Every structure is written in structure tokens, then in C-alpha cells.
Amino acid sequence: MRTLLSQFCESFESVLRPILEPLNGAAQAFEDSQIELGGREVRAGLLDLRHQVEGLVQKVVDQQAYVLLFGPLKSGKSTLMNALSSTYVSEVSSLPAYPCMVYLSHAEEREFDVTRYNGRTERFSDPASLYMYINRAHVELAERLRAAEARSEEFEPSMHYPEAIRKVDVRLPAGDLARSGAVLVDTPGLYSRMKFGYDRMTREFRDSASCAIFIVKSDNLFLEQVFEEFEDLLQLFSRIFLVVNLDSSKTDLAHDGSLIPSLEREDPLALIDAFENLAMSAPLKTAAEEGRLRIYPIDLLKAASSRLKGSTSEDQASSRANFDVFLRDLTEYLNSTDYLVAFLGDSLRRASHLMDETADILEHEQVKALRDGAEKLEQERQDSQRRRHAVGRLVGYDWRQAFLDLEDKLSPSIRERAKAASAATERDLDSILNRWFQCDDSLQTLVTDQLTPAFAKYQDTLTRFVQQTLSEEVLAGTAGVMLPTAVSADLYAAGVDLSAIGRDALGTLGREIPYKNVGDPLEAATIPIKRRLIDWFLLRSTSKVRNQILGDTGQPSLRIPVEVKNKRIGAEGRDVMRQELDRFKGRFFHETVVRAHRHVVGEYGSSAVTNMETALKTRDTELDSQLTQIVSDLMEHRKVLAHLGTLSSQLESAIHGIEGLTEQYSDTEPTMLIQPAPPMERPMDPAPTEQELESVESLELESDTEETVDAPSETI
User: Fold this and answer.
1) Phi, psi at residue 260, to the nearest 5°?
2) Where do the domains of the chain lie, and which CATH numbers do they carry?
3) Distance from first CA to last CA of the chain, Å, rounded?
4) pLDDT tens across 330-348, in order?
5) What is the pLDDT of residues 109-119, one digit of tens each?
6) pTM, 2 dp
7) What is the SS3 assignment for 573-612?
8) Would you call 303 helix, strand, or coil by DSSP?
9) Contact 279, 220 (CB under 8 A)
10) Are 294 and 288 in contact (CB under 8 A)?
């Protein structure tokens, strides 16, 4: 029969289950990221939420009655589980005191599933292998815990050790559990060093409709510290059963030295009365008066033995009777409408709280940092693309022509400096020639030692002038070229320093200036020589006389006295020599100017163009690599943000669904939950036509024949 409760469970699942995939997807996206996204806390939170939502959904879908067992270590929790399930669950009692939840339920075959904080699960087929595995895991967990303590950090397994075990599901044949559908939950022992397990349990079962059983040995009943944590649990559960684990075999010493049965064997109720009147705190007493707390003195060892044997001996009768009373009250509560109302209302509140926690984690500072990082990367991506486009345009620009234009730009300045250098050299040449006529130096000395160095000096001076002019232009900051505004903007965008390129190109000049060989500015054959009368009589030719005075034409190295120069060369010869020098000078000066200009500026331009091409190629490679990395990082951010966006959308839908269920079921009468549910409303169709209405009247509605189990049965 389909009841209102089963209808609620189906609706609850349809609202919450869709959020599991985006929770897992977002957590996995953080895990799979190729870069460090700084979302360690967020991922841990997402995994924790997935685990809690999944557990809540499964609990509601299966209409499971969780029965939580908690208390100090060695208080008898495992023994109580044996008694409740009427099965020897050594698989639970043999587990080390690992701070995790152990869920015990019925199954036809033995199954042991270990779930870690990172969501990974592993199945074991036998208790021995499970025990060995958890024992090793316990050692590793203890080491991680000590490491966190050494760093003065509060240990959080989802962050410090995601491989830590979160829960163990033990499923085995247990008839009583099969009939009731109850799940026994063994919680971490209180007051253990690894207290985080207990703290997490209180978070996970907040707003749970589960009832709880607190087990305490009679020896510890009057210890105040035992109930420090217990009072916190009063706020978590609508019903708590306090089981005082008796040792009915204990004896006391009589006044005559004999051993007599102890009070907890002879009159356990007197022990409970003493606790209620003398040691119970105000919160516990209030809970007891309200009926939310019930106390049962039971010898759990004997009760479990009786339940497993299926028979009651005289020695075990009292313990079995007390256990049966406890079991009856527990079963009645799980079968009551009060429990069903609590089951429904607390499930909705728990779902609402989990959705609030999901919303909080979506606004976590690490998520905000992730969004900011994505925005920053997007800006960097656009900037890098803009820079690459600028580099592409610069590569296509005619840089050779731009630097060739520099020759025309520098020509006026170079001509002015050449004119000044020419005038100074002309004066030097006149002085050299005049001095030669006033000394006995040979013509070769005049040419080699004085005239040629003067022309070489002019060549060097002019070349230096050209270099200086070029340097002044280059060092002005634009590498000496005039560029369109758009090209200058591209250089700035690409991050290419034109001035640096100019300086580097300039630095390659001046070390080896390829001077032209000056040659002979004055040849002996061009110098007129006056023949004496005897030269005429002896028929000596002018060339022969010239050789006698100057020396061999190819090497005129004869010293020439001043009086010979004045008589045999004279003023006319001096004028001829000056004219020859003027012709050589004019040609040499022009060639030197052209050569120096073209060489220096041309070499600079070629070097600058090469440097520019290299710089653009290098910059393009850098930007390409940079852009690739930025895009890769951006994609990693966007992948995670896309999953978070999907989670956000699904969260909004889930919140709306939970609000709708709350509004729909909040005022439901308890008895209505187990009544047949009305047919589910179908989506509204378009208004039918009159013909369709007539045809509908002839149709017969078929009743829903689906049957479901709606509430736990009468016993555990």
C-alpha cells in the first residue's frame, strides 16, 4: 500500500538525490586539476556534504531506523549489538577502536565496505582481512594525528588525511535486523584520544530522527565526566535510552568477612534510584521527567548470551527480562507515530541544514579566490592575445625601409659635418705643402708621411662624425626611426623596446671601421720640373731630369734641398701640385662621405633590422608559451567553476524542493502518515476541447496497486 510517508520518501529522494552528482563532480574537479587551485578546504567540505547527503537520502529512501550506540570505551556497546541483532557480530567487536562509524545491518551474505573521507570505497569479504586493514590504517592515522598536534593544528581528517576511514558498513545475516529494517550504528568511543570521530558523529546526526542508546558500566555511573558529552546528545535525539551495564556476578564483603551478592545483583533498581536522586544532573533529570530519557539496568553479557542461545536459564532470567523491557520500549518507539513524525520533520530540517552548508561552501573565500583568479586569468589571456596580435603586425611591418629612411634623415647633419672636416683638412694640406717646400724632405716623405695621414685623418674624423650623428639620433630614444602612431602602439603592446634594439645595434659599430686605402694623393709624374741649359744641351728629357731630382717614379725617395725645390719646381710646380691635390681631395672627400654614410648607417640599419626580427620572434615565442599556460590555467579554473555553477543551480532547485516538501508535510497529522496516499498530481495539460471532455467521461480510472513497506515492524 502506498502511504503518505512512502510518497514523502519518494519526493524527498527526487529532490535531494540530483545534488549528489554535482557535489561529487565539483570535488573531483578540484582533485583532477593539473594546477594548485587552493581549494583544499572546499574540496574537503564538498566530499563531506556528499557523504552526508547520500547518507540522508539513503536513510529516507529505505525508511531506515538508525539506532545509535555510544558510550565510553569498553562499556559494552558490542555486547549490546550482539543482543539487539541476536547474532554474534564478532566483525564489530573485533575492530580496533578506530574513530569511525560502524553501521550494522542485515544482508543475506557477509559484506564489509570501508568508506574513506575522500569518498573512495573498498570491499572486504572476511572479518580477518578487514581487521588487519583497519589495524594498519589505525597506525597511519595515529602518525598523522601526532604530526598535526606537533604543528599545533586541530586535526581534520578530510584535509590532513583524506585516506582516513570514515565509516565501515557491516552487513551480515541477522534475522531481527532483517525484520525491523533497523541499522545499528556503533559510534567512536567517548574520551578517546581521537575525539574528532565523536565530534563528526554529532555533526552528521544532528537533526536526525534516530534514537540513541547510551551504554555505561555501573562502575562509572556516578562519575561526572562520563555524562559531560552525554548532555550534548540530549539536544540531538528525540529519544535516548540509557543502558546501565551491570555485572551481576559481582560480590561485596560482609561484616563477617563473607562474600555476599552486590547491590546491583540483588536490587539494581536501588542503584538507579541512587543515581537519579543523587548524581543525575538537571538536564538529565528534565529529560527523564519529559520521557525523552529512559534508564534500564541490564547485565548485557547475560542478556546477549540468552538472546544468542534462544533459551533462558534461571541465572539469566532477570537479565533477559530487563532486556526484554528495554527492547519492547525501543521497538514501540520505533513503531510509533511520534517516531514517524520526527523522522519526517527531522529529515527535512537536516536536508535544509545541509543545503545551507552547501550554500555556505559555495561562498567560501577559496571559491571567491577561484572566481577572482579566473577573472584575472581571463584578463591576462586577452592581454596576451592582444600582445600576440601586435607582434604579428610588427612582423609584417617593413623595418628595413624604416631604417633605410634614416640615411635621408641624417644626410643634412652629415653634410654639415663633412663640410667642416673638409675645410680643416684643406688647411692642413696647404700647410703641409708649404712646409715641404721649406725642408729637404723627399716627395715620398711628403706623400707617405704627411699627405696620406692627413687624408686618413679626414676619413677617420668624418666616419666618427657620422657615428656620432647616428648615436645622437639613436640615443634620443626612438632608435633613429620615425614610426606611425599605430606601429609605436604595437611596440608598446608587444613589450618590445625599440630604444634597446637601437642601442644594441649601435654597440656593434665602431670596433672595426673598414677604411678605404687612401692611395697616392700626389704622383711624381704630375709634378713639372724645370730643365737647366745643360739639360737642353745634353738632350735630357723632362722625365729623366725628374727622376734625377725626385728619384725613381715609383719611389721618389731622393732628398731635395730647399734651393733645388725653389729653382727646379718653383711656384708654378707648387700650383700644379696644389691643383693635383685639389682634384684628389675633391674625389676622395666625396667618396669618403658617401662611403662613411652608407656604411655606418647601413650597417646600423641591417643590425637593427636583424635585432628587431630576432626580438619579435623571441617575443612571439614567449607570448605563445605564456598564452598557452594562461589558457591552460584558465581552463582548469573554469572546469571547477563550471561544476560549482552546476552545483549552485541544482542547489537552488533542491532548496526550492525542500521548502515545498516542508510546506506540504509540516502540518500533517501523525496518523495520516500511514494512511493511503492520494494519487500524485499530474502536470497540468492544456485545456481540453469539448470533444476531448466527452471522450474522457467514458474512461475508467485505474487504482494504483503498488505496495510498499512504510514503517519498521514490531520488533528489532
Assistant:
1) -125, 155
2) 4-363 (3.40.50.300), 398-628 (no CATH)
3) 22
4) 888 888 877 888 788 888 9
5) 888 999 988 88
6) 0.69
7) HHHHHHHHHHHHHHHHHHHHHHHHHHHHHHHHHHHHHHHH
8) helix
9) no
10) yes
